[in-house]
Design brief:
- The protein has 152 residues and is an alpha+beta fold.
- It has 2 domains: 84 residues, Winged helix-like DNA-binding domain superfamily/Winged helix DNA-binding domain (Arc Repressor Mutant, subunit A, Orthogonal Bundle), CATH 1.10.10; 64 residues, 2-Layer Sandwich (Dna Ligase, domain 1), CATH 3.30.1490.
- The protein is built from 6 helices and 5 strands, in the order ααααββββαβα.
- A hairpin with a 5-residue loop joins strand 3 and strand 4.
- Helix 3 crosses helix 4.
- The longest helix is centred in the middle third of the chain and has 13 residues.
- The radius of gyration is 19 Å and the shape is flat.
- The structure holds zinc ion (2 copies).
- The site of one zinc ion has 6 residues, from strand 3.
- The site of one zinc ion (ZN) has 6 residues, from strand 3.
């Protein structure tokens, strides 16, 4: 079964009404192999219909997140991206200076999650998150004293 059909079926089974707009939104994000912002989803769907707005796109994407079919991550600078559950748990390292995004292996964080569990009795179930810092190039530039790391 195609990926999008699985999602639509899951939503139907949980009692959600699948309007044509909702279906288009689910298809757009499910068929895209990448992350998408709500604006990008809207742009893609606008080619098929004009009777859709950004609020509907956000509501449907947030519904997918609530139902565990997708996850969102804030990459800073107003970039909130959505990825389907097919992407699995993952982490983005976002450079505050140049905006570069490095995809990191979530397994690198296992020692930290174990430490949190030991100290706070809290088990982390990370899905999708971003950490902000400086990339290698920007850090080197900063160390050479070329410009500040402050994007403003
Ligand atoms: Zn950078
Ligand atoms: Zn992601």
């Amino acid at each position: 079964m195609p990926h999008c059909e699985t999602f639509l079926q899951a939503l139907r089974r949980r009692g959600y009404r699948i309007t044509p707009q909702r279906e288009m939104i689910v298809r757009a994000i499910a068929h895209s192999g990448r992350h998408m912002t709500a604006e990008e989803v809207l742009e893609e769907i606008r080619e098929q219909t004009r009777s859709i707005n950004l609020a509907t796109v956000y509501r449907t994407l947030d519904l997918l997140v609530e139902e565990g079919l997708a996850s969102r991550a804030d990459l800073g600078g107003g970039r909130v991206v959505y990825a389907t559950a097919r992407h699995g748990p993952h982490v983005h390292l976002v450079c505050r200076h140049c905006g570069r995004v490095i995809d990191a292996d979530i397994a690198s964080f296992d020692p930290l999650f174990k430490e949190i569990e030991a100290r706070y009795g809290f088990t982390c179930h990370p899905q999708h998150f971003a950490l902000y810092g400086l990339c290698e190039d920007c850090r080197a530039r900063e160390e050479r004293g070329e410009g500040s790391a402050d994007p403003d």
